[in-house]
Design brief:
Blueprint (H helix, E strand, L loop, with lengths): L7 E4 L2 H7 L16 E4 L3 H7 L2 H6 L6 H9 L8 H17 L8 H13 L7
Parallel strand pairs: 1-2
């Protein structure tokens, strides 16, 4: 496997984390693949989890110490110019969710789609 200097960032959505996080340890800090990539989550994952009793019951392991520490060390935070662009995109998604009938989707799932756009490496312009 050829090692790349900077691993590609993949943002793991909350649903995937809740379903896989207990089975694959560590899931967030491990470099894997060719080229290498690393998984991260948004800090909103913890807020979504903590306000939802159903998630707490179904995914009881999420607040165990080792999982809390792993998420704390592997949260994606937009930096620099991306911060304002992400805020604008989140605002649009908040508005869209408020005025549509998208049942079954959490606001965090929509946000993750936006953040992954900003986390993904850019293609060279031709």
């Amino acid at each position: 496997m050829a090692a790349s200097k900077t691993p590609k960032l993949i943002l793991l959505d909350s649903c995937s984390y809740f379903r896989l996080g207990v089975s694959f340890r560590p899931i967030l800090s491990r470099l894997t693949g060719d080229p290498e990539y690393v998984l991260k989550v948004l800090a909103e994952l913890d807020r979504e989890y903590n306000k939802n009793p159903r998630l707490k019951t179904k995914f009881w392991w999420v607040n165990h110490k080792e999982h809390l520490e792993e998420r704390a060390a592997n949260c994606f935070t937009p930096m620099g110019k991306k911060v304002n662009a992400v805020k604008v995109a989140f605002s649009y998604i908040n508005h869209h969710f408020a005025y549509s009938h998208l049942s079954g989707l959490s606001l965090l799932s929509g946000r993750e789609g936006v953040v992954s756009k900003f986390a993904a490496p850019r293609r060279p312009e031709i």
